[in-house]
Amino acid sequence: MNAVSILWPMIAGACLVLAAVQLLVRLHDKNAQANLWLALLSLAITGIAAAELALMLAGSTEDFATATRWIHVPIFITFVAIVRFVTRCFGTARGWLGWTVIGVRAFALVLNFAVGLNLNHDAILRLRPIRFLGSTVMTADAVFSQRTRIAEVSTLLLLAFVVDASLRLWRKGEADARRQAVVIGGSVTAFVVIGFAQGVLIHSGVVAMPYLISLPFLVVVAAMSYELSRDLLRSARNAEELREVAESMHLAAGAAGLAFWRWEIPQDRIWVNPQGRALYGVPANTPITFERYLTSLHSEDRERVRRGIEGALTGNGELRTDYRVKDSAGMEHWVEARGKVDFNGGGKPLRMRGVSIDVTERHHMQERFRLSVDASPNGVVLANAAGLILLTNRRADEMLGYAPGELLGQPVGNLLPERHRCEHAAPREGLHRMPESRTMEAGHELHALRKDGSEFPVEIGISPVESPEGTLVLSVIVDISARREAEEEARRHRDELAHVTRVTTLSELSGSLAHELNQPLAIILANAQAAQRLMAQSPPDLAEVKDILTDIVDEDRRAGEVIQRLRALLKRGETKMLPVSFNEIATEVLHLTHADLIGRGVTVSRELSPELPLVAGDRVQLQQVLLNLVLNAADAMAGNPVGFRQIQVVTSLEGDVARLSVRDAGCGLPEDVERLFEPFFTTKQHGLGMGLAICRSIVAAHGGRLRAQPHSECGAVFHLEIPVCPQQAAWS
Ligand code: ADP
């Protein structure tokens, strides 16, 4: 045994082990192409080592020539492996240069087998033993062929290829890239140069030594292995981290009841974690296909989910759906699933990955919320910040004339007539800025718009609702048609009653009114008779007749006015709110009651404020109130001695309220003044007890008030107060 026969088999053995290791790595990881090339390189070096050993131990020139010929096979493989390894590992190599290297070397290989003894020798003259590493090995005295130049060119090209790729990698500037450039690029370059130099020296006869390619290339292989094992270590570390992440995900999934799933679409195979199997009620070893998955869904949800998934596969690849499933224990769950589709380059769906989560609790909450909203007797509409409807309850759909769900996504403004829309937008915008509940005030009656275009009166309460989607607006719509109708009905009844009591009151005045009418009629009659007589004279006294006719016209007008006032009061009319003057009302009522009051020995003094603004009111109804107050005052003083029966009528302005007061010196008021205003309260023998009750309701309908108070000296004073019209200027 000598050093050569120990060392070379060792080189071959080491390379074989390396090749085996790299092949194993490649077998486990389809992407480990660099490891494959390194395995090939190691195998080639094994071959070179074997051929070198054969050369050194050659027994004849023929053996030497044959071994030289065959050594070119592993050398060619070495070239290919280095080019492919550098290309794969660096990612910066020039492809064409790599293929040129392989092409030239392949040409050399062809020549090696096709021409002469081999690539290097034209003839081998004799074997020459030399001492090498303490052993006797063979070299040859030979005629070297010019074909060797081709081998040298290919080696130089390989050098250029590796140096170029290394420089380009170095220029990337990253620390890892630079290290690779130095370790792999540097070692390959150094040992190719050494091999090249050695070959040139041997071929030119400068030195007589055996070929030593395998030894330096063992270092190259070691450098390459070192680099790849770093990657291997890194991926092992990554794998460990990944395992930890997966474990945490697994724990989190268990805690949150999350189901992870993956659907390999071309194979129609679905993988799902154990939580998912439990949730979908699929036993552990049952394979899951798409159809099997669909059967685990509630039958009513299947078609919808199928459409959703098909939509994701043909559309943007996003899936978001919910459905019911029965778990392994047969309990129904609501599940929300979200997934994403991976497409290949041609847009064909490869797999869909996603998670499913048990949202039963949330669903029940939503259901309870929906039920309670649906049970509301009022309409409920929830809109987002953009004013689009997100939810309506059954009552809202009914009152607005829409089918359930039809309003979703529509602008909330569509529920209001055109004229209210900006009024609605304003409070809604305000709500987003300053979240607090409020009632929509349109300044007049608010109406909602039905689908068929008809309108109905409503009251709308608006509240902000904070949600993950931002501030939402909850509108509660109350249909007040029934209330409006009831109010209208009440108003009609009040008018009716007011009319009846007016007629009753006037009937009390009928005697004095007849007298009031008799007077002008008697005067008219007397004047007419006088005129007849004057006309019968010859010649007739026409000047006197003219005076008489003027008197007749005046008296007729006076009687006409009395009748007109009576007719107005007796008329059954609708309430008409117009600007009226308290002073005019006082004057008219005092005219009407003039004769009656004189008959009762009552005197009237009036203090009418000349600057009194107008009030909005129904002239006839306000006259009725005053008439009632004046007649009550006269009644209250019936027991007073004549000369102590005086009524004072005063109008005044108190702030922005017009006041009409009637004061008497009568019997005074009971302690509980409010009783006077109760219906049917009367102290009079033939009284109805409805007068003041009706008067108060009339005044309340005018937005004012009617109150009584005892006078400081004697008797009572009644105040009729109504706010003055805000738009005085427009009316005056
Ligand atoms: P009626 O005149 O038919 O009794 P009213 O409602 O007009 O009905 O009046 C109710 C009662 O209020 C009267 O019966 C009377 O007792 C009392 N009353 C009304 N006005 C006066 C007044 N000026 N002074 C004292 N009592 C009054």
Automatic annotation (TrEMBL):
SUPFAM superfamilies: ATPase domain of HSP90 chaperone/DNA topoisomerase II/histidine kinase (SSF55874), Homodimeric domain of signal transducing histidine kinase (SSF47384), PYP-like sensor domain (PAS domain) (SSF55785). Residues 319-371, 442-492 form the PAC domain. Its EC number is 2.7.13.3. Residues 365-438 form the PAS domain. Residues 512-726 form the Histidine kinase domain. The chain crosses the membrane at residues 6-25, 37-58, 70-87, 96-119, 150-170, 182-202, 208-228. PROSITE patterns: HIS_KIN (PS50109), PAC (PS50113), PAS (PS50112). Keywords: ATP-binding, Kinase, Membrane, Nucleotide-binding, Phosphoprotein, Transferase, Transmembrane, Transmembrane helix, Two-component regulatory system. InterPro entries: HATPase_C_sf, HATPase_dom, His_kinase_dom, HisK_dim/P_dom, HisK_dim/P_sf, PAC, PAS, PAS-assoc_C. The keyword Protease does not apply. It holds the Pfam family PAS. It catalyses: ATP + protein L-histidine = ADP + protein N-phospho-L-histidine. The keyword Nucleotide-binding applies. This is histidine kinase. It comes from Luteolibacter soli.
